[in-house]
Amino acid sequence: MDTIDFKALSELMMNGRMTWAELGSCLGLSSPATAERVRRLEDQGVIKGFTALVDHEAVGCALTAFVAVSLERPEHRNRFLQKIMEMQEVQECHHVAGEDDYLLKVRCKGTRDLERVVSDTVKSIPGVARTRTTIVMSTPKETPSPPLFPEDIIDATRR
Length: 159
Hints:
InterPro entries: AsnC-type_HTH_dom, Dimeric_a/b-barrel, Tscrpt_reg_AsnC-like, Tscrpt_reg_AsnC/Lrp_C, Tscrpt_reg_HTH_AsnC-type_CS, WH-like_DNA-bd_sf, WH_DNA-bd_sf
Helix content: 25-40%
Distance between the termini: 11 Å
GO molecular function: sequence-specific DNA binding
Protein name: Lrp/AsnC family transcriptional regulator
GO biological process, one term: response to amino acid
Strand content: 15-25%
Keywords: DNA-binding, Transcription, Transcription regulation
Structural class: alpha+beta
Shape: elongated
Radius of gyration: 20 Å
CATH architecture of the largest domain: 2-Layer Sandwich
Number of helices: 5
């Protein structure tokens, strides 16, 4: 990646709907050259895709919770992960260090729905030893974009 790729990523993270012409204007490139750069970033897996950012409360998922999960033994990992990947309420699944094995970010309608997700679904997965749930009261900050560090970008003009 070079400084132009970095700038393209920065612009697209702020406005993923901008046209090739608009992005090209920011980058000092033609529309076709801009489109090619973005396609290359997609091919390299730097850009995973484009999506609409939906307000979870507006679509009926007013409750967010984090569920820490401990497995009985490592051999239960694959089946656990397979089941978690099938659950649309699980927005994120992180393998973590410490007392727990996984940390799940769950979005659902309310506490009854959370009870169904945790008690009826997650705890019923073979190998789940225990769960610990934390309900989110409010979210002052949440962003889907990772931090970008310009000092780590290789400038194409210096190669």
